[in-house]
Design brief:
Helices cover 74% and strands 4% of the residues. By secondary structure, it is mainly alpha-helical. The chain binds zinc ion.
Length: 422
Amino acid sequence: MEQLIVAVFFILFTLEFLVEFGLNELNLRYVRARWAERKIPDFFQGKIDPADYEKSVEYTLAKGRFQRWAEIYDGVVTLLVLFSGALPFLDKFSAQLAGTFFPIGQGRGIIFCAGVALIFSVAGLPTDLYATFGLEARFGFNKMTPKLYIADKLKALLIGLAIGAPFLFVVLWLMEVMGRHWWIWAFLFISGFQLLMIIVYPTLIAPLFNKFEPLREGELRDRILSLADQIGFKTRGIYSMDGSKRSAHSNAYFTGIGKAKRIVLFDTLIDQMTIEEGLAVLAHEMGHYKMKHIRRMLVVQTVFLFGGLYLLSLLVNYQPFFAAFGFDHTSNHAALVLFSLLAGPFTFYLGPLMNLLSRKHEYEADRFATITLHNGRPMEEALVNLTIKNLSNLTPHPWYSAYHYSHPTPAERIAAIRQRSV
Ligand SMILES: [Zn+2]
């Protein structure tokens, strides 16, 4: 049985790798071919400087080539962690550590999970460092100093521990004491926790990394306030964020629920856009709010959580599942870790489905902006502008974007906006 479990995992793992790798290759070729013919979407004709187009192609190709190596590296790390005996060793070591330093219930489980998280964070450093200080810097996007980079990592580690340890404590405790139906209790707890995080993240955690300020006085602010008023969005929830301290990339997002909801515009975006374009972006974000997109996403995630925990409840006492990965006994914490490490090759195929839903939301928000402003032009201009400034891929392979993109391509969005404006 153990061999069968390993074999099934291995096949699915390889399949995921091949699909991922193949899509990347397809995309690289596609972009190169369009570049050779100088074939860009109509909407960009005459709007993008040929030098900018060339730079965006170079950026896309550089990212794709890096992606190749990053995927191989990540795959090797995952296989090593799973099959080198590192996990059972870490489990025994955690028991010793917990006995000496952390003699509370679930101490061993918490140390074990933290240890696994640490292994993956350290293993991820080389690719992360190269992406930030190599790739992004080469194209002029990185604004992060090594000092800020280290400070960010340390902060994230501390926050992760402060939130993760109590969270794990409760989940492991529920698994231990709630009997056969522990997973229903865990489901209720994790759902509540997620809801809490949606409120806590934008209001308490994100401000630890960035400065959030009300928009500066001026025409943009005045017009945004009157737009917000017209739509019925609390104007106190509109912020500008100092994204420029890490990256020259520009963005805007809507987050939170209830009183914690807010629209955040990166300072880079405000600097790059005309007032009309900025207003269109804001109307788009308000569309996400009006159509309750966060709530809808949350419902879908909750369904996945329910299914995932049920599956985990079937595996948690199944000896061969543990034996397949070198554990000589079953345990709740090992089940949690194995389950999350093994889930990738299975849940990989849900990614495109979630992206499909997310893309639907983007179309809806664009449409909302178009209707609210009685004009699709500003949204179009904003999309073109954002694409050029971020050196986004003008011509992604359709399969690649269908799989990986949470947003429709700018060309798709503009086409949809035009169709509706007619
Ligand atoms: Zn959006």
